Amino acid sequence: MAAQLIDGKAIAEAIREEIRAEVARLAAEGVTPGVATILVGDDGGAQFYRGQIEKNTASVGFAYFDHRLPADAGQDEVLRLVAELNADPAVHGILALMPMPAGIDQAAVFNALAPEKDLDCVHPANIGHVLLGDHLFAPATPSACIEILDREGIGLQGLDVTIVNHSNIVGKPAALLCLNRNASVHVVHVYSKDVPAACREADVLISAAPVQNLIRADMVKPGAVVIDVTTLRVEGRQVGSLDFEAVCEVASRVTPVPGGVGPVTNVMLLKNALAACRAQRSQR
User: Fold this and answer.
1) Residue 32's pLDDT is what?
2) Which terminus of the chain has fewer Cβ atoms in its 10 Å neighbourhood, N or C?
3) Residue 255: which domain range?
């Protein structure tokens, strides 16, 4: 394979060490960053994610607050819990785990989060700050893509970037973050006329399409950097959206699945929580 594989695990561990050092400095001042999760019901995916957050917060010395409500909890009960966590000075970041049961309006929950504690960056105010480029933090997965590029020494200014995804949590914020770095950005999706042509233009290709082997070698510009955000489970193993070995013969650098964007996404949530803690301390 010609391409250099980008080691997301090593990048994530480097970030984790930086966070631990900052946590130690805060501890000397009597401050511990705190993260709270809200889990309503017993969705398996949300339960798994909650467990990962508990593990990740413990790995850097954060306080973790686990809040669970039964599946028959009403929206008012959820919003009351959000209000309590918004007011709790020990909680610097809140993650409302989705999906929640039918009858609970996801938008109402997101809108109730204090923007400075909204670690997933789902509150409209935070999305607006990402648009303006003056955000405290951004959604974790797009932030992970930018962090990887930064740590690989790839400046986006003047580059052509194609993003294969236009979701609210990956494609759109990733496009904004790249635009904020003065890249020229092309966003394509299932309704786009010519996805392969758009991909072939890209110096940096970010794929978050939930389709195995979607990105073929003939869709990649020679020497491009390819970031694969997709994680699918196929026949018991994790795969991404690239025809991986073929793409590696064309690209200069590629993130593998697993071991690429995923580990960095996990620590970007921690980095968001640290930024939230600093911001809230400065307001007091």
Assistant:
1) 98
2) C
3) 138-261
